[in-house]
Structure formats: structure tokens, C-alpha cells
Design a protein that fits this description.
By secondary structure, this protein is of the alpha/beta class. The protein folds into 2 domains: about 1-150 and about 315-435, FAD/NAD(P)-binding domain (3-Layer(bba) Sandwich), CATH 3.50.50; about 160-310, Elongation Factor Tu (Ef-tu), domain 3 (Beta Barrel). Helices cover about 30% and strands about 15% of the residues. The strands form 4 sheets. Strands 10-11-13-14-9-15 form a 6-stranded antiparallel β-sheet. The protein has a 5-stranded parallel β-sheet with strand order 6-2-1-7-17, with helices on one face. It has a 3-stranded antiparallel β-sheet with strand order 3-5-4. Strand 4 and strand 5 (about 90-95) form a beta hairpin. The longest helix is centred in the last third of the chain and has 21 residues, at about 415-435.
Amino acid sequence: MEVNVIGAGLAGSEAALQLAKRGFKVNLYEMRPNVETGAHTTEDCAEFVCSNSLGSYDITNGSGLLKHEMEILGGELIEIAKDCAVPAGNALAIDRHKFSQTVTKKITSNPNINLIREEVTKIHDTPTIISSGPLTSDKFADSIKEFTKSEYLHFFDAIAPIVECDSINFDIAFWASRYDKGEASYINCPMNKEQYEKFYNILINAPRIERHDFEKGAKFFESCLPIEVLASRGEDTLRFGPMKPVGLIDKRTGEKNYAVVQLRQDNSAKTLFNLVGFQTNLKWGAQKELLQLIPGLEDCNIVRYGVMHRNTFINSPKLLNPTLQTRERKDLFFAGQITGTEGYTESIASGLLAGINMAKFLNNEPLLELPSETMLGALTHYITNPENDNFQPINSNWGIIPSVEMPKKERKNKKLKGELMSQRSIEVLGKYLTNNII
């Protein structure tokens, strides 16, 4: 039995590998490099575009729990990510090129996977997983729209700039991780009040790249907002967001800073660093002027400017079951960011579930509908809840999981709450899997 997987991004690559190791033949379609997306820069599978981080690896964090669940469920890409990790404190960040090249090699060397480099314009009428991603081509988007009988929801995603490490002034910048958690793996550029106010005033008045008519009125993901959009919400918004100084102190001076810009390692060689939370749609000249206002980046060499691109997702609550199977057609599944799962980790996890469930469907076995006490179960239940009339993309977070009872004195202890919820999730998943073979 052959299965079509449309899109060789994070979700599609994971789904294809899950099916292949269960003995199914997979036609994995990827339109790159024949058709470009405007955001990808290579033709490799599972390319990271916006950031090189999969988020926290701490199990008391929602994203960390999701990674642990993926390991339990036999995820393929999470293991590759660990092998391609670069220092990032408590987070799992990867050398993006090494990661995508490793995934591509694993896919192309698998005898059960046929990687087909062509654009799909119509949904196949045989077993198919659609994981074409938020940058789905217009022709295929029209085919999906025809199937769903509903309009797409559009939002926009922005990419942060990357600079060369050698161009950073370490007389000013310093190495540290927030609260000294893990090794000091972030570069930090401190600002005093005067420097921050100057930076802020230039930022909010900087020229932006003009959007096309079809882009106007578009929605943004809250967790990937352009920094200029965040700044427009108030002068101190950045100081409580991506430029938060708390827990970041230069041990050479011992001074508390008014604001801090963090840079995260982007490749194994430690030659490239991306600006954390600095997604932007400013014109490139304005970006250069703004970045060189940051103490320590006065002479920075920008190797990639920030850009903004269109992302698309379906109205999953009206279309999908928590198994990621479409309600109207049993042999058609969706996975990845096109379903409204926000984030790289979430995209991989949905591909993992879709791949497992497609295999189960073809084997006439009951599909996995993970308990809502697990992070992946809560995520899939959230994006497929038919009562959700105002659907917005979501990432892994404690707010979508049923809460746990906390001692009255400990109700504000977020770490303890995370520990208790993670422990419960792992126990619930373990019990569920004793009765549901994967």
C-alpha cells in the first residue's frame, strides 16, 4: 500500500519516516527547488526557516513535555535534533543546516520513501497526508479550499536577522544564560535607559516593507510578532518581552541592565547568531541602522536580514478529528502548521501522530486519540474542537491541559505546577499506550 505525503517539511518528513518504518511505501512530494516559497533557502527536507530553536527542553515546560512525549512515541526528528544540537541553555537549538541535511539523507536513503521533486496541484484520491505547510502553493491551496468548502485563514510570519559572531564587540556584549541556567550560551547586549529609549524611538518610526493588497488586514501569531508590532503596544513592551533584562547580569560589572538584546547560536561552528525575538518586516536599510544602535553590534555584519512572509492554515475545528483525520474522508489526514499548530516542535509532533494514525488506519486498527492530559493530546483536541468558533493557531502550553490540584500555599509556584502536570501527563500516556500499540 502506498501513501502520499505532500510537503517534506518538518511534519511531512516525520510522517514519512513513521510510515516507512512500519513497512509502507511513501511518495513524499516536495515542490522545492522547482517552486520556491519565498522563505526557504535550500532544497533540503525539514528546513528550519524562522528560528533554529525547538524551545525549552525542561520537562516542567509545556514545550519540554511535548518533546518528551515525542520520544516516548518513537519520534524520528527529535532524535536527529538532539544529535544536531548547539548550546542554548535550557532550550533545544540546532545547527539548522546539519539538521536538514541529516533528515534529507535519512529520507533519500530509505528504500520505502520516494522523494518526488514536483509541485502537487490536486489532492490525490488515494491515502494522503497533507503537510504542505504554511507556505502552501497557490494552486494546491485552491485544491484544499475546494475540498474544505471554506475560506482559508491567513496570518503572517516574520524572520529574525542573523549576524556574524566575529563582528560582535565583546568589550560590551557578554555571555550568559538567564538566571545562569545551563551553560552561558547566549550573547547578551546590554542597554541603559537612554540607549533603550533612543532605540525604541527609531524602531517605532522606522520604514517598513509595504504589504500587498492581499496581505492587508492579516493576522500575526502572537509568539512570532514582528518586533515593530510589539513595540507599537507601548514603550515598555519590549522590556517585558524579547528584551527582558531580568536574570541577565554581566559578571564583569555586576550591573543590572535596563534592557538586553539576546543572540542565540545558529550553527555548530558558532560563527552565526540570530537575534532572539527580533522578527521584523522593516526595510533592510532601517534594519541595519537599528541593529547597529544596539551596544555591542555597532559594527555587526548582517548575513541575513529579517523578512516577513505569508503563512496559511485551515479551519481545523470544522475539518479534523483529534486523530488528525479529516471528518469527510477517512484516508486523508492533515499535519503540521497548516493545521494551526504553532511552532517547530508542535509541527513535528503532529506529523508523528498523523504518520502513526495513517498506518493504523491502513492496518484497520483503532487510531490514537491521545488523552487531553498529555501535551500532544491537548494540542490536537484544542485545534479540532468543533465548538471553537474563533480559531487561532496555538502552541504547547499549560493552559490547554486540565489543571492539577495544588496545595494552597503553592498555587503560585509555576515550577512545581509544571512538575506535577508533567508527571501526570507521562503517567497517563504510559497507561494509554499499554492498551494502544504504536
